[in-house]
Amino acid sequence: MKTSKLIAAAALSVLAAAGAHAETYEGVHPLTTANSRANVSAEATVAARSGNPYGDGSDAGVQTVASNTDRAAVRAQAVAAAHNPLQSLDRRAFYRDQVPAAYYKPKVSVTRQAGL
Question: Over 70: is that where the pLDDT of 99 sits?
Fold first, then answer.
């Protein structure tokens, strides 16, 4: 029994040693470019100042939109939306995607003040 345990332990240690291959660190990879720092900096400046070649409207310049809506009407709609307390209320945040009735307040609220 003692020899079988010894053989099993030796086999296990051989398997553990075979499975423990560590990778070696080869350091930082050497540079493989022939460009100088000044050339790379100049190319980067040109690329940063040029438009996005993959964008849809990069070469279109300023685009105008024809609209027949009055500026004052658009502003009034924006002010009304900004003052709406339920504007950012998302029904998905509630149980069964239903906004509770308590959130829908009446347009006019009546308050009472105590008289002295």
Answer: yes
